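Hi Prof. W.,

I finally got the C2 domain-containing protein prediction working! I wasn't sure whether to trim anything, so I left the full sequence exactly as given:
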Amino acid sequence: MKPYQQKHNYRAQCSELMPCRAGITWGGKPFKLSFCIQSCALEEGAEVSASSKPFVTVNTVSKQKQTELGDWHQEDGRWWFRETLTMEVTPDEEVCISVSCNQQVDLLVAALSLASKCVGEVCVPVASVLPQLQVEDRDVEGMIYATPNIGFDVLKEGVKTGRAYLSFETKNPPAKQSLGGESWCALNN
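And this is what came out:
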């Protein structure tokens, strides 16, 4: 085989294994992202009662925030929160959204509060949310980038315990960055 043919065959093998293409990534700078927690529907085995109302916690790398206790709506069988938590995130991090319940023991003369119990959680990569942002013109707030309501399965020990519904909003999403047009495997020579 001639040297030219050997080099050509090597290129074909490389492109079959790892195609050399430019891609799009998000910038790694922090930005403020609002988590608009709408509601949560819990499965029957989720051990939630009217006296132990759930709340939602959002955990990032550096912070944790939680909603107030949810309100039960019998008509649609959901706990409603309608609360927005704003946190600083980067596009390359994962955010953990968990649903928990306060635990109480009623001793007739007093109620004893215990540590909250996690009903389930879901981890959401911030980068998966960013492509879904669409610009909206809100009169008072100005231009906002927002997603539609998204339903996430809430899991505990690999078992679905419910579904949380939320949307995401930001005023300044990170800019898309191109990786460039050159192939990273350097076989263009």
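The mean pLDDT is 79. Does that look reasonable to you?

Thanks,
D.
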